Amino acid sequence: MAKYTPMMQQYMDTKAQVPDALLFFRLGDFYELFFDDAVAAARELEITLTGRAGGSDEKIPMCGVPHHSAENYILRLVEKGYKVAICDQVEDASAAKGIVRREIVRVVTPGTVMESKALQEKANLYLAAVTAKDGAYGLAFCDLSTGELSVVEHEDEQAMFDEMMRFQPAEVVVPAGEEQSEYALTIKELLRTVLTAAGEKTHRQDRASEALLGHFGVISVDSFGLAQHPLAISAAGMLLTYLLSTQKRSLGHLKMPSYITSDEYMTLDSFSRRNLELIETLRDKSKHGALLGLLDETVTAMGGRLLRRFVERPLANKRRIEERLDSVEELHDHLLLREDVRQLLNLVYDLERLVARVAYGSANARDLQAIGSSLSILPDLKERLGGTAATLLTSIAEGIVDFAPLVDLIERAVVDEPPVSVRDGGVIRDGFDPYLDTLKQASREGKRWIANLEAAEREKTGIKSLKVGFNKVFGYYIEVSRANVQYVPDTYERKQTLTNGERYVTPELKEKESLILEAEEKLIDLEYQTFVKVRDEVASWLANIQLAAESIALVDVLQSLATVSSKRRYVRPEIMTDDRIEIIEGRHPVVEAMLKGEPFVANDTVLDNGSNQISLITGPNMAGKSTYMRQVALIVLLAQIGSFVPADRAQIGIVDRVFTRIGASDDLAGGQSTFMVEMVELANILHHATPKSLIILDEIGRGTSTFDGISIAQAVVEFLHENPQVGAKTLFATHYHELTTFTESFAGVRHYSTHVQEKGEGIVFLRKILPQAADRSYGIQVAKLAGLPQEVLARAREILAELEQGKSDVRPTGYAQPDPLGGAMILREEPVAAAQVETEDEGRSVAPEAVQKGKKRAGKEKDDSSTLQLSLFGDATLEHEIVEKLRSVDVMRLTPLDAINLIYQLHQKARGGAE
Predict the structure, then answer these.
(1) Does the annotation flag 302 for ligand binding?
(2) Are 581 and 694 in contact (CB under 8 A)?
């Protein structure tokens, strides 16, 4: 075993405590890293890797960073997913006997960053913990920088993943030994997050409960409302234990765990949050172009974070929605009130994070100043809100406590422009502490004497170039150039020889130096102690400041919604107790805001659980189907946030969930095609939707063959329409205009189409939703708009004409047809030409023998260019008179009324009635 020096042995012992972290080991003015830690840090930070002797035969790899700039290096490593353990000297080197005692004072991890430069102002940074038992999950989420602590339990794995996706934790703690479990690895892959193993058995309910009760000073988990949630207790206790072990300091700012109740909020799964672009856009992950970016007129960081939580978790409680709407209306209708509120809030700093740093022990004098100035605006805010008619605003005003004593303390204690560091003096205002004032006076007088010493000695000695200086090594000195050394008095004592001169001291200068340095040393120590006392006093107000911060954040969100509503001409929605959604002249909030000078085409919507349950929307690409459906979902979501909505009028029946299936992409890493991703999302919807849900489906079945796609699409419509346990209000957009025929007899299905105007071989999108079905998809016209070559477009028209006339050699292997006896869709296989050697779905060769057998079953021998025969009733009825009647009809000359009469006659004959 290698022999190490005492210092390196101390390092090795310390490193053994944090084997999974990079150890920053304080040596003098540097933090040093050794061995593999040094190699990794040098690579990641792009700093020089050196070596040093440590008692072993070979040099030990080493690199280091200056202690005063270590924070930047630490944060860079944490951003890359590393944990960094900080080991500091915990005793005065001058008083130490032997090796200076060092201890790990903190472990910085991706989920425990407190430094403001690494935090997004208007976004939370969450650390999560998850425990699992018998298919159920307990979750805990903590933002260490604000003290927020939330817990929840889920019986469903997908719900657990959705919750994780909503919080987007930077780090997830799992029980020791479960790092390779399926759910843990899925979380790591889904979130691209850091996975950390907790301490041994800290997730056990007894140990978790003990940790929670001890930290929050209560005698029962009933105090948290968690008695019926053992897995939530397990996750919260495990998370708290992990925080205490890594932070190694007070966590008094942590709030009691708050349980996330599902019945109070609308549920939005990760697919829907992504598809509706609530927080960020699909294309570039930007806030600009997302709903949050549009709604964010907040002026405080706290308000920005709360608004994000509002958007991600709309309410499902009518009373609470109405309270918010009343407040938004008050601020919307009273411009002067709104502007006064905005001006006051603009003076508020991030109280949540400031007070967290106070409790954490890392707040400096500037932080205290920011807290004091922020709290000083509360009396004016209280006065402005107290005179309003909205109960939520008045209750906020009534809850604001008097912080005048605390504001006065901070103003009396801290100088106007304090330094960043609180350990170098210059922090405490004159007059706050008499003894401090005495030390300050002594220091000032000594420095004034020394400042006058230079002029006095020049006059006394006649040396005009003489000067008095100071450095940390030699203290105060008198410096004389070499040419004037002969004029130095005998009372001068040589202190240091320079190339161009000499430095001296005098007995009187040494005496003054001793007095000054002693006074300054005492002064700095006493100033720091005084500052800590002031900071502790601020910490004693912690709970009240946190409540004030929550109130300020809520007011900021409400004024933000009112400001947006005023700018965008939004109206207050009516929140209904029934399941009806009626929107008159609704608009897509984000698309409308992005249009430059072009008016947005508004549309109406009616949905309920009866005759307007499903809106089947057909029409070409780019005609506005997806925009229309998204706008309905966003209007409902805005209403349940408590916001005004982009419409002329809106009646919103509260929905419990919004589901969307809009677009998809391959998940190649997970081995899933676009179609598989689509089906997974669809399965989630059909398994979890209820009659109070809103479903948005766009182009279901387009990822597979035409007939498989139509089959799935119709089956989904039937399931939603006929299944009373689902029965959700649904907007269903499709290119399969054939579906409108299949669903004509469904009482709850209404047909709509996007209005387009044909101009020659082109089309104009009018963006209007009409109460009628489309009979064409206009695919070639859209392809023309996209810029496809003319020869491709011309050939496509030829093929389309041949397909429509049944003359093309490129034919499907089957077709879809409504069953006139039952209204359901029937898929039938038909013989194909020998030249057609691949099926559409699987690409497998079709043997000529099978083709010939198919021809014989059809009752006729035809050449390979023959058209596909459409069978209504099977092989035995090919020559049925109904078939002959259909063959004789000139479809292109039928009027709509003639077509209806013909269908009625054929239907009667098929059922055995008279024509």
Answers:
(1) no
(2) yes
> Which residues make Cβ contacts (< 8 Å) with residue 905, sequence separation at least 6?
915
State how far the Cα of 893 lies from the Cα of 904, in Å rounded to an integer: 18
> Looking at residue 571, what DSSP letter applies?
B
Identify the structural domains of the chain with CATH numbers, from first to last. Answer: 6-108 (3.40.1170.10), 120-260 (3.30.420.110), 296-403+541-568 (1.10.1420.10), 434-535 (1.10.1420.10), 574-777 (3.40.50.300), 789-871 (no CATH), 879-915 (no CATH)
Task: Give me the amino acid identity at 473.
Answer: V
- Cα–Cα distance measured from residue 602 to residue 586, given in angstroms and rounded to the nearest whole number: 5
Give the DSSP H or E segment for 29: none
Q: What is the DSSP letter of 204?
A: S
Asked if residue 112 lies in contact with residue 127, where contact means CB atoms within 8 angstroms, the answer is yes
The answer to whether the annotation marks 625 as part of a ligand binding site is: yes
624 labelled as ligand-binding? yes
Cβ burial of 176 (10 Å; 0-12, 13-18, 19+) is middle
> What pLDDT sits at residue 760?
58
pLDDT of residue 663: 63
Separation of alpha carbons 24 and 298, rounded Å:
39
Q: Specify burial of residue 262 (Cβ count, 10 A radius: 0-12, 13-18, 19+).
A: middle
Mean pLDDT of 694-709: 81
Which of 522-531, 542-551, 734-743, 860-869 has the lowest average pLDDT? 860-869
Is 622 within any annotated ligand binding site?
Answer: yes
* Contact of 773 with 618, CB cutoff 8 Å: yes
Residue of 744, 770, 887 lying closest to 824 (CA atoms): 744
Q: Residue 866, class by beta-carbon neighbours within 10 Å (0-12 exposed, 13-18 middle, 19+ buried)?
A: middle
Helix (H, G, I), strand (E, B), or coil: what is residue 39?
helix
| 896 known member of a binding site | no
Q: Is 619 marked as a binding-site residue? A: yes
- Helices 391-399 & 318-333, crossing angle to 10 degrees? 90
Cβ atoms of 754 and 769 closer than 8 Å: yes
pLDDT at 641 > cutoff 80? yes
Dihedral pair phi/psi, residue 830, rounded to 5°: -125, 155
Q: Are 427 and 444 contacting, i.e. CB atoms less than 8 angstroms apart?
A: no
DSSP letters for 468-490:
EEEETTTEEEEEEEGGGGGG--T
- Per-residue exposure over 35-60, b if at least 16 CB sit within 10 Å of its own CB, e if not: bebbebbbebbeeeeeeeebeeeeeb
Q: Which two tokens stand for residue 734?
A: 């499709």
CB burial of residue 836 (10 Å; 0-12, 13-18, 19+)? middle
Task: Provide the mean pLDDT of the chain.
Answer: 85
Question: For the chain, what's the residue count?
Answer: 915
**Phi, psi angles (nearest 5°) of residue 259:** -80, 135
Contacts of 597 (CB under 8 A, 6+ apart): none
Do residues 351 and 545 lie in contact, with contact meaning Cβ atoms separated by under 8 Å? yes
- Tally the C-alpha atoms within 13 A of residue 205's C-alpha that lie toward its C-beta: 13
Phi-psi region of 772 (alpha: psi -120 to 50; beta: other; left: phi over 0): beta
Joined together, the tokens standing for residue 791 give 């020869």
Tokens standing for residue 819: 């069953």
Residue 676 — very low, low, confident or very high, per pLDDT cuts 50/70/90? confident
| Out of 63-67, 483-487, 595-599, least confident range | 595-599
**Kind and range of the H or E element at 826?**
strand 825-829
Q: Distance (Å, rounded) from C-alpha 234 to C-alpha 257?
A: 12
Q: For the residues of 608-663, what is the DSSP string, one character each? A: -SSTTSEEEEE--TTSSHHHHHHHHHHHHHHHHHT--BSSSEEEEE--SEEEEEE-
Percent above pLDDT 90 for the chain: 58
> With pLDDT > 70 as the criterion, what percentage of the chain qualifies?
85
Lookup result for tokens 């209005």: 755
The backbone torsions φ and ψ at residue 823, rounded to the nearest 5 degrees and listed phi first, read 80, -5
